[in-house]
Amino acid sequence: QVQLVESGGGLVQAGGSLILSCAASGSILSINDMGWYRQAPGKQRELVALISSGSSTNYVDPVKGRFTISRDNAKNTVYLQMNSLKPEDTAIYYCNAKMKSLGSRWYMDYWGQGTQVTVSS
Description:
The protein is 0% helix and 59% strand. The chain is built from no helices and eleven strands. The strands form two sheets. Strands 2, 4, 5, 6, 9, 10 and 11 form a seven-stranded mixed beta sheet that branches. Strands 1-3-8-7 form a four-stranded antiparallel beta sheet, with no helix packed on it. β5 (46-51) and β6 form a beta hairpin. The radius of gyration is 14 Å and the shape is elongated. It starts with a strand and ends with a strand.
């Protein structure tokens, strides 16, 4: 069974920093793109940042210059370093990975369980 497990959320004051981690485990043959999404109360889930298997990155405009996505392929882990946090960054953050598992012909989307990030003003 393949799964993603997140950690690192919490409560922080505006201007502070947090780092989120997401580790993939199970019978994994290959991991392609990995990313972070977030969902604020009453809003749809939205993309935050993506990183390819070759470590090319993309960010949505609201987080550019403040957030950094990275990955450790040896550990099957993706990170999100969040600096200069703002109250509007408050949301549940989900990691996502396109992974091919043992016995599968295709890459499939997997999601973590989500971790709450709350930024107080």
